[in-house]
Amino acid sequence: MIPAASQFIPLRKDKVVIVNSNPKIQVRQTAIADVLIIEPKVFGDQRGWFTESFNAQDFAWATNLNIPFVQDNHSFSKQWTLRGLHYQTQHPQGKLVRVISGSVFDVAVDLRRDSNTFGQWIGEELSAENRKQLWIPSGFAHGFLVLSPSAEFLYKTTDYYDPGSEVCLRWCDPTIAISWPIPPGKEALLNSKDAAGLSWNQIPKF
């Protein structure tokens, strides 16, 4: 069940601003300015297509961010699987996420107390078809819902996984009130850790 909205107003994708672009990559701001949509150039012909899914030099030039990625993760999930909302307190991770099979609704929640968008969320559909990537800086909780019959999800991280400092914000917390696109009659598939996520008032913030 999707909770009703409350004191925090979720930000919508009414407008995107092109931050920078070059022949191989375009970067757009979302309604939360630090969360970026990355769109690599796709080169196609009668044989198929080719794209550089990541190029450190182009990424740094287009985003003005010099980010060392240290770990790549790959997950497979069935339809209506919901993973999240996760983050680490001692080793915060920035994440560059994308989908190589299927589609997901990807969500980031701003946990930075000094941010103008503290407590607000952004959602973006990522799919193998649209080839969009999402850059989520450290200081955010992150999660996704699988929309297609299945999905393969890849993400690069700026720090290593640290289970001792991992926190899970409850996906259906009424304070955040994320509008997950779950159809009537369907339920999110959760593991025990995510089902026992903490409320907004219980989680540590940055």
Lay out the secondary structure:
Blueprint: E1 17-22, E2 25-29, E3 36-40, E4 42-45, E5 48-51, H1 56-63, E6 71-78, E7 82-88, E8 95-101, E9 103-110, E10 121-127, E11 133-136, E12 140-146, E13 150-157, E14 166-168, H2 192-195
Antiparallel strand pairs: 1-2, 2-3, 3-11, 4-5, 6-13, 7-12, 7-14, 8-11, 8-13, 9-10, 9-12
Strands side by side in the biggest sheet: 1-2-3-11-8-13-6
Number of helices: 2
Largest sheet: 7 strands, antiparallel
The termini sit apart by 29 Å
Helix fraction? under 10%
What is the rounded Rg? 17 Å
Indicate the low-confidence ranges by residue numbers.
Answer: 1-17
Report on this model:
Helix content is 6%, strand content 40%. With 206 residues, the protein is mainly beta. The strands form three sheets. A seven-stranded antiparallel beta sheet has the order 1-2-3-11-8-13-6, with helices on one face. A hairpin with a 2-residue loop joins strand 4 and strand 5. The longest helix is centred in the N-terminal third of the chain and has 8 residues, at 56-63. The model is unreliable at 1-17 (pLDDT under 50).
